């Protein structure tokens, strides 16, 4: 993969984040490959493997936005290596707890093909606060 393709992949993910942060609810689904697949830690209420834009919209977004203060999410860094793009984000849970999220994207044919989510601490998101 050329550095031009690598830069295009980085810019695709950046544009999607920027549009999403700007309130465009279709930013992620519109950029998804037909064979999109997302993997979320199974401990989370929206955890598991989700396939396709419809699953992302119906199964992930409602539960995610009920647990995360969506307006607090900020992109800290974004790196690309070939078809892989890694993002580090910060934000707050709806309860005000600090969150650190890493998202690993794989871009295929100019579209978001795979996404794997990593959370530094899932405690504020699972409802069991006894571990604090």
Structure characteristics:
132 residues, alpha+beta, Nuclear Transport Factor 2, Chain: A, six-stranded mixed sheet, 6 strands, 33% helix, globular, NTF2-like_dom_sf
Per CATH, the class reads Alpha Beta
Mean pLDDT rating: 93
**Total count of helical runs of at least 4 residues:** 4
- The helix fraction, in percent, is 25-40%
By helix and strand content, what is the structural category? alpha+beta
Please, how many domains?
1
Structural write-up:
With 132 residues, the protein is an alpha+beta fold. A 6-stranded mixed β-sheet has the order 2-1-6-5-4-3. A hairpin with a 4-residue loop joins strand 4 and strand 5 (98-108). It has one domain (3-131): Roll (Nuclear Transport Factor 2, Chain: A), CATH 3.10.450.50. The model has no long low-confidence stretch (mean pLDDT 93). It has 4 helices and 6 strands, in the order H-H-E-E-H-E-E-E-E-H. Residues 13-115 form the SnoaL-like domain. This is SnoaL-like domain-containing protein.
SSE diagram, text form:
Layout (H helix, E strand, L loop, with lengths): L2 H19 L5 H5 E9 L7 E4 H16 E14 L2 E10 L4 E11 L2 E9 L3 H4 L6
Summarize the structure.
The chain is built from 4 helices and 6 strands, in the order H-H-E-E-H-E-E-E-E-H. The protein is globular and about 45 Å long. With 132 residues, it is α+β, with helices and mostly antiparallel strands.
């Amino acid at each position: 993969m050329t550095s031009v393709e690598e830069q295009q992949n980085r810019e695709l993910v950046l544009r999607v984040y920027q549009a999403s942060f700007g309130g465009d609810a279709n930013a992620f689904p519109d950029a998804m490959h037909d064979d999109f697949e997302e993997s979320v830690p199974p401990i989370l209420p929206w955890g598991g493997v989700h396939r396709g834009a419809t699953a992302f919209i119906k199964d992930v977004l409602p539960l995610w936005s009920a647990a995360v203060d969506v307006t607090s999410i900020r992109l800290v860094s974004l790196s690309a290596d070939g078809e892989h793009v890694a993002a580090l984000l910060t934000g707050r849970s709806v309860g005000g707890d600090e969150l650190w999220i890493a998202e690993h994207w794989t871009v295929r044919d100019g579209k978001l093909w795979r996404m794997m989510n990593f959370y530094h601490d899932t405690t504020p998101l699972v409802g069991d606060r006894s571990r604090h």
